[in-house]
Design brief:
This protein has 334 residues and is α/β, with parallel strands linked by helices. It folds into two domains: 259 residues, Cytosolic phospholipase A2 catalytic domain, CATH 3.40.1090; 66 residues. It contains 13 helices and ten strands. Helix 4 packs antiparallel against helix 5.
Length: 334
């Protein structure tokens, strides 16, 4: 038997995966030989593999502590371990009062102001020189990602994931990222996780489009693995796992209610639920069909693939909740 755990993408809701994997490894004696993940699931997978010298239960407990000590909002700095919001004046004031580092906060405010002004000037220049219709040019002025600084995520990855341990681990790692240049999925493995490339791979897989910029790897730009492979079941099967534990963060569409009056966010959330859960359900049905077909022609010695699904029965929260790293909701998810 070769077991695998598949982690899905979903921002802060990835804390739900921490609770499930802790249950599986501490109470169900699951001993994974393979971890796969996309987006936040890629971070969780890489961190688990980096701890594979420990017992599975200890690795799961370590993952929980990283989320509670390094990912959630720090009460002293009022910043989380994933991103920092530029241009949030009340936050600058709160941070200065909490840390008592007025010069440092002022320097941060000045740097952010310069960064945002430069971004606005570049967008204005593109607006002035573009030959596109006026409406399209106006939409091109919107750049939400300029307000998000993902340097905290890079620091989090470098300080919590031992990439040498990942490369040397017998536990297999597969991280899915979307090639932003050509529009396909690339799956990275243990040997790809050098000290230089490893952080970029994890960051690229977690680069939510329009929030975080794509990350350069090997001459191409890579973005959130969840764009094309939010729950990378395929890489687990390619690694010849025959017992696969799939953790995903959306309810089954049939189990989740549809708002009586849908707004734009409700519509997008419903679309994501159908896309993510529907893809997983289709994949699992395909595996079962293949199992039946192979068993019918070669029953002797055939070991079917068993897939166990773990997911919430109702929505974990809104789209904006994917960026909420406050301690209380993270603890509740775990």
């Amino acid at each position: 038997m070769k077991e695998a755990i598949v982690f899905s993408g979903g921002g802060a809701y990835g804390a739900y995966e921490v609770g499930i994997v802790k249950y599986l490894l501490t109470r169900q004696s699951v001993n994974p030989a393979v971890y796969t993940g996309a987006s936040v699931g890629g971070f969780n997978a890489a961190l688990m593999v980096s701890q594979s010298a420990s017992s599975p239960a200890d690795a799961a407990r370590h993952l929980e502590q990283v989320w509670l000590n390094n990912v959630v909002v720090n009460p002293k700095t009022l910043e989380n371990g994933v991103f920092r919001l530029r241009g949030d004046v009340p936050k600058y004031i709160e941070s200065a009062l909490a840390s008592r580092d007025v010069p440092g906060t002022f320097a941060e405010f000045t740097g952010d102001t310069v960064y945002l002004l430069q971004d606005m000037m570049q967008l204005a220049a593109a607006f002035a020189t573009s030959k596109q219709p006026l409406v399209q040019r106006a939409l091109g002025m919107l750049d939400v990602s300029a307000f998000f600084d993902n340097e905290p995520l890079r620091n989090l990855i470098r300080t919590t994931i031992d990439f040498a341990a990942v490369r040397n681990s017998a536990t297999e790692l597969r991280i899915a990222a979307t090639n932003w240049n050509v529009g396909d999925v690339r799956v990275f493995g243990n040997s790809d996780m050098t000290d230089d490339r490893g952080p970029n791979i994890v960051m690229g897989s977690a680069a939510i489009p329009s929030v975080f910029p794509p990350v350069p790897i090997d001459g191409s730009l890579y973005a959130d693995g969840g764009v094309l492979a939010n729950t990378p079941l395929g890489p687990a099967l390619a690694a010849k796992a025959n017992v696969v534990h799939v953790i995903y963060l959306t309810p089954d569409p049939a189990d989740s209610s549809i708002p009586r009056v849908e707004n734009t966010f409700d519509t997008v959330e419903r679309m994501m639920t159908i896309m993510v859960s529907g893809k997983i359900i289709t994949d699992v049905e395909h595996i079962r069909s293949v199992n039946r077909l192979i068993a019918s022609v070669a029953p002797a010695g055939f070991t079917p693939v068993t897939v166990h699904l773990y997911h919430p029965h109702s929505a974990l929260g809104s789209l904006m909740g994917m960026l909420n790293f406050e301690r209380e909701p993270i603890e509740a998810l775990i």
